[in-house]
Amino acid sequence: MIYEDLKTLIEIPGVSGFEEEIMNTIKNIIKERSLADKWFLDNIGNFYCIREGSDKSEPVLLTAHVDEVGGAVKYIDENGMIYFTPQGGVEAKIFPGQWVKIITKDKKTILGSVGTIPPHLKKGSTEKEPKISELWIDIGANSKEEAEKIGVKKFNQIIIDRGIEKLASPNRIMGRCFDNRIGCTVLIHLLQTLAENNWKDSTIIGAFTVQEEIGLKGATVAGRIAATKHKTKTAIVIDTTSIGDFPGVKKQDAQASLGKGPVVRVTDTRMIATPWLRNLIIETAEKHKVPYQVGVMHGTTDAMAIQLVHEGYAVCAICPPVRYSHSPSQVADLSDIENTVKLAYLTIKELASQ
């Protein structure tokens, strides 16, 4: 079920600023499975699922961002070649030679190839990494007018044309936008676990947030809304985390590995997890023998933005590890995803019992 749900979410484009279609898909899943008592959208585009609980336990905010890195149309030249700008932290070197899809306003997809000067036509070193400004998308149009007639407009979203596949090892999977459709899948299955267990303790606010990849914007709004409407003071963020269990990365720079459980992100470049909450998560994992890893990480997650909202939250992120983050061929392990659901659920139970 986890693989099937992840596949469904990955097939929907949702670059930062273009999350409406993927959010509608998540909303339909939540409604069809009756995973919340009520739900709503806010003005920035976040989707909230509320499971009402007892006033005896403090409410808990759970978040996962839905947006993916990608691109957007910037300029069409007179020959119909399309230049683009990155959306989120995506490197230029992953684009040359890729098949991409341009998504029009009416959801039509236009296939294209990312072009660059081939090595036998280059002057000087062929080892120089390209810049985004040196790349273009060829959709087969012969002019700007033809490209526009086909449907290309400035600021159409662009995704690399990849899906999801199972690899040789039974639990290993490869696909695009695991960051953070894996987190969304975890949050859906966490809400499903709560429903299956007829959860009636603390109120749970599940927030699927937007625009994480361009500045944690949705989480800032979600944290404020949960705090003001539900008096929430504790948040668990579900995101993926980069690892380095492959050639070329020093172990001290990225300690986690695939297949060894979710990463409890105790600190990163811009966030230090709240001590009592990170300790509770680790103690819960050890108590119930859920495999886990401790992460001292680079980058940051929505936890940083939520931590600063409304007098400060207790926050920690629980993250399935992923190889090759922000590439179209990320690799993950299904057991890590399953154990993230399990650890998050058990942590919520521990919080409610305090």
Sheet bearing the most strands, described? 8 strands, mixed
Count of beta strands: 19
CATH class of the largest domain: Alpha Beta
The share of residues in extended strands comes to 15-25%
> What would you call the structural class?
alpha/beta
General shape: globular
Find the CATH topology of the largest domain: Aminopeptidase
Compressed to H and E, one letter per element, the order equals HHEEEEEEEEHEEEHEHEEEHEHEEEH
Counted up, domains total 2
| DSSP helix fraction | 25-40%
Number of helices: 8
CATH architecture of the largest domain, by name, is 3-Layer(aba) Sandwich
Mean pLDDT: 93
The CATH superfamily of the largest domain is Zn peptidases
Kindly summarize this structure in a few lines:
By secondary structure, the protein is an alpha/beta fold. It has 8 helices and 19 strands.
Q: How is this fold's topology laid out?
A:
Layout: H1 2-10, H2 20-32, E1 38-41, E2 47-51, E3 60-65, E4 70-76, E5 82-87, E6 99-103, E7 109-115, E8 136-138, H3 144-150, E9 157-160, E10 164-166, E11 172-175, H4 178-196, E12 204-209, H5 217-230, E13 234-238, E14 241-242, E15 263-267, H6 275-287, E16 293-296, H7 302-307, E17 314-319, E18 321-322, E19 330-333, H8 334-353
Parallel strand pairs: 3-12, 3-13, 13-17, 14-18, 15-16
Antiparallel strand pairs: 1-2, 2-12, 4-5, 4-9, 6-7, 6-9, 7-8, 10-11, 11-19, 15-17
Helix pairs in contact: 1-4, 4-8, 6-8
